[in-house]
Amino acid sequence: MKIVMAVIKPFKLEEVRDALTAIGVHGLTVTEVKGYGRQKGHTEIYRGAEYAVSFLPKIKIEVAVADAQVDRTIEAITSAAKTGQIGDGKIFVTSLEHAVRIRTGEADDAAL
């Protein structure tokens, strides 16, 4: 089992969710986060004063999937989240040792 974590632009969330649902991924966790990469932020003007926005709003999606679904999950997220512009995001994959569904007690792949 793996955890696939993706950091994407906020307006791409619904497209990514729909793409994951289409390949059979039925659960995900979404967190509003802020950060920067190569974008390094930008400047904005508010009430006539210019100020720097160092951290940009992003969405972090975490999905637990079986090993066999990892490549399809990455492909679905990539195709749905891609705009071709800087700041599209990143995907990270880490190992998941154990998972338990609290309601039923199912473990590992059955819990996903």
Automatic annotation (TrEMBL):
Record-level Gene Ontology MF annotations: ATP binding; enzyme regulator activity
Keywords, comma-separated and alphabetical: Nitrogen fixation, Nucleotide-binding, Phosphoprotein, Transcription, Transcription regulation
Alphabetical list of SMART domains matching this protein: P-II
Alphabetical list of InterPro entries matching this protein: N-reg_PII, N-reg_PII-like_a/b, N-reg_PII/ATP_PRibTrfase_C, N-reg_PII_CS, N-reg_PII_urydylation_site
Keyword Nucleotide-binding (UniProt): yes
Gene Ontology CC: cytosol
Entry-annotated residues carrying O-UMP-tyrosine: 51
GO BP terms: regulation of nitrogen utilization
Organism domain of life: Bacteria
Function: In nitrogen-limiting conditions, when the ratio of Gln to 2-ketoglutarate decreases, P-II is uridylylated to P-II-UMP. P-II-UMP allows the deadenylation of glutamine synthetase (GS), thus activating the enzyme. Conversely, in nitrogen excess P-II is deuridylated and promotes the adenylation of GS. P-II indirectly controls the transcription of the GS gene (glnA). P-II prevents NR-II-catalyzed conversion of NR-I to NR-I-phosphate, the transcriptional activator of glnA. When P-II is uridylylated to P-II-UMP, these events are reversed.
Family: Belongs to the P(II) protein family.
The protein's assembly and partners: Homotrimer.
Protein name: Nitrogen regulatory protein P-II
Organism: Afipia felis
